[in-house]
Every structure is written in C-alpha cells, then in structure tokens.
Amino acid sequence: MKDFISWVYLLLLELLVASNSALFRYYQDLPPVAKAYGVLCLMTSGAYELGLYNHQTIALFYGPVIKRFQVWRLVTNFFFLGPFSFTFAFRLLLIARHGVQLERGPFDKRTADYLWMYIFGAFSLLAMALIPFLSVPFMGASLVFMIVYVWGREFPNERMNIHGLFQLKGFYLPWYMLGIDLILGNPLKPDLLGMAAGHLYYFLTVLYPLSGGRFSLKTPHWVHKLVAYWGVGFQQNAPVTRNTAADVAFQGRSRRLGGTRTSASTQAQPSSSEQEQQNAAAQPNQANDGVAFRGRSYRLDGRR
C-alpha cells in the first residue's frame, strides 16, 4: 500500500509539472458533463484503492436507505466503476470517447439536455433496482452502458476499427461490448439494465415524437436552472437567464429566426409617436434591424 501511495504521489507531481502538456490541454477542452462524471468516477475508485472508505457504504441497498435514511446511496453508487483494473479503465475510456462525442455532437450547445439524459438514466435505473432480481449494488457500469447505447443510436453508421481485425458499425457497438463482458466473465445484468435505460430515453425523446406521438420527454426547468446556476456549458433556447456571476458562455435567452427575442416582456415597448417616426423613416422593401415586418406594410411601388 505504501508503494502504491508513493506511486500516486509521484504521478500527481508529474501531472503538476506537465500542466502545459497536451494531456492537460485535452482535459481542459473536455465538455463539462462528461468530464465531471469521468473525474468523479476516477476519484471514487482512487479513494477506494487508498482505503479511505468501505465501498459497501456507498452501494445501493434500499434497506439502509429506508430504515436509516442513508439517501446518499441513491447517488454514490453511480460513481463507482469498480477497483482499478482493465474493466475500470475500459469503462473510463468509454466515457472519455463516446460520452464526449455525444456531448460535442448531437448534444452540442445543449448542456442541460445532456445532463438530463444522465439524470433520467439514473432515475430509470433506480426504478429498475426496486425489482429484487434486477437490483445491483453499483450502477455506474449501467450508466456507462446507457451512454454507449445512446451513442450507437445517434451514430448508427459510423465505422469503428476493432483492434485492427474488423470494422463495426456504431449501431452494433453495445452488442459487441456485451459479448466482451461475456468473454471476460463480467456480469451481464448491469449492461442489460443500461441498454434498457438507454432505449427508454431514446424512445421517449426521438422515436416516439417522430412517429407522431403527442408526448415528448423534455428537459425539466430545474435542470436548466441548475446548469445556469453553475454557469457551465451552453444551452440554446434555454428558459432561464444565465448566471452573470460566472465567467461562462451559457446563453440564457433564446432568439427567433428573425432576430427577435422569445420573451417580449424583457424589452421596453416604444411609444406610439416613436413608432410612427420609425415607420416614416423606413424605406420600402427594406427590413429594419433584421425584422422583416414592422407594423405597416408597403406596396411594391413604394406607395401606401
């Protein structure tokens, strides 16, 4: 254990010395949600390897949650991907690759929507764990598998080179990973639960609305407020204003295609005399400030 602690200490020193390296710049450029989840998973497993806690204290057991009010178990179990091993490193790489690609691709400028995907997946997995034969103590692997499943649906035709042996379409990646866990002897229940949660999210947000369904799973208002409060990421058409105290690029108000804001109450309305002066000064066949219609219309020849 002392040798391991010394190795971790030297590794941290090397990271501090190499703060200007490409690895540090890569970390800085990562999108906020995938980066935060990956770092929390790494810190949780690292603290377990250092013997700072017993992993059973963060496992998902509904008995202590109900009887002893240990509500932290409902959250902490999603951040434990297992002890340091090949499986742990593989799952962390899945977050760094497919989770980041999702956040930069289909969820680009939709930080709140991407965060809601994680939260919805966690709620779905917690609901499944209420069934005794579906319960697992740690659902971090299931959440990672959900990310991979949604990635496979968003990038179904992307070609992936598997170890230089063959190519695989993105749609079949979750099933390939399921086979890898079967070969390695890992339990398949967390993978199947993650696929179920991912399919439920994709069905409610994409498939069902496209088929003409009236219901669509939308990001709750409080998730937008949470993203705006922390001042991370970027969200188009957000219903809340951004946190001005944070130095971020989060945009609070949405805009119409014509350039007008969706909330007219936030702008001062001009008086009637000022409106008449603006209309009188307007030229025919010309839009004012990007707005195609300004009160009164004009004929093609310029006469009223």
Automatic annotation (TrEMBL):
GO BP terms, alphabetized: response to stress
InterPro entries in the record: DER1, Rhomboid-like_sf
Stretches with biased composition (Low complexity): 259-287
Membrane is among the record's keywords: yes
GO cellular component, one term: endoplasmic reticulum membrane
Superkingdom assignment: Eukaryota
Disordered as annotated region, ranges: 256-304
Principal place of residence: endoplasmic reticulum
Sorted UniProt keywords: Endoplasmic reticulum, Membrane, Transmembrane, Transmembrane helix
Bilayer topology annotation: Multi-pass membrane protein
SUPFAM superfamilies listed in its UniProt record: Rhomboid-like
Subcellular location: Endoplasmic reticulum membrane
Segments traversing the membrane: 7-27, 33-53, 74-96, 116-149, 170-188, 200-217
Homology family: Belongs to the derlin family.
Function: May be involved in the degradation of misfolded endoplasmic reticulum (ER) luminal proteins.
Name of the protein in its database record: Derlin
